[in-house]
Automatic annotation (TrEMBL):
This is NitT/TauT family transport system permease protein. InterPro entries: MetI-like, MetI-like_sf. It comes from Thermanaeromonas toyohensis ToBE. Belongs to the binding-protein-dependent transport system permease family. Gene3D superfamilies: MetI-like (1.10.3720.10). Pfam families: BPD_transp_1 (PF00528). CDD domains: TM_PBP2.
Length: 251
């Protein structure tokens, strides 16, 4: 039933989704409560917010924050992970410090960052940086330490320099671990920015979400939740595609 034909999923793939949305529409109309709007009303509100540019404005601000914090945190985490994964001295020196800081939730830093940075754009970006840094750090270390030493030894015997071994042996074999961290953090970054915007930032999807709650606009809340779901899903699919392009031939 779920087989592919001509590169496309068959119609049966959409049956659960169709039943869910139909049940939502019928159930909401039977209940007739402002706290549970029909799916059609949510779609109508989405069209209105998109047409007025309200949704695009808030989504763009949230997206810029996510991309900025995620790129900086991920790159820093990967670089530090490579250093700690390849150097026993660096690992023994810095691992205890990172082990102490890692259990602190990213949002746990919010009160302190509000005092240090104020209610500025640096606040959500820094939170997402923290959120992205540690998982990429530990995934990179795990990926590098999982490389079979025989591969490294073989490359040395063939005359490869340490840089060539890192570039052509260690990092490629660690990529699946790194991409796992990227996929996980693609969704976590959105959850972090929404929480920060709900608490401390007056713009973005999180701010739109909390304002809708204060106005008892459940339809807008559902619109925001759908947008967050699509953005998280889209980020994960992008990294899955990149991973397949980079490692699909030999993974």
């Amino acid at each position: 039933m779920f087989s592919k034909k001509d590169g496309r999923l068959t119609w049966a793939y959409w049956i659960p989704t169709f039943l869910f949305l139909s049940g939502w529409e019928v159930g909401a109309r039977l209940i007739a409560s402002p706290l549970f709007p029909p799916f059609s009303k949510v779609i109508a509100e989405f069209v209105y917010l998109a047409g007025e540019g309200i949704l695009l404005k808030h989504l763009t601000l949230s997206l810029l924050r996510v991309v900025g914090g995620f790129v900086l945190g991920s790159l820093t985490g990967v670089v530090m992970g490579i250093i700690l994964g390849c150097s026993n001295l660096a690992y023994k020196s810095l691992a205890p410090l990172f082990s102490i800081l890692y259990p602190i939730p990213a949002l746990g830093w919010l009160p302190l960052l509000m005092l240090w940075l104020g209610l500025s754009e640096a606040l959500p970006v820094t939170l997402i940086f923290i959120c992205s840094f540690f998982p990429l750090l530990y995934n990179t270390i795990a990926g590098i330490r999982s490389v079979n030493p025989k591969y490294i030894q073989t490359a040395r015997v063939l005359g490869a320099s340490p840089w060539l071994i890192l570039h052509h042996v260690i990092i490629p074999l660690a990529l699946p671990y790194i991409f796992t961290g990227l996929r996980l953090e693609a969704g976590m970054a959105w959850r972090t920015v929404v929480a920060a915007e709900m608490i401390a930032i007056p713009t973005g999807i999180g701010a739109l979400l909390i304002n809708a709650e204060s106005l008892i606009r459940v339809d807008i809340i559902f619109v925001c939740l759908f947008i967050l779901s699509l953005m998280s899903f889209g980020g994960e699919r992008i990294f899955l595609w990149l991973e397949h392009k980079l490692t699909g031939a030999w993974k």
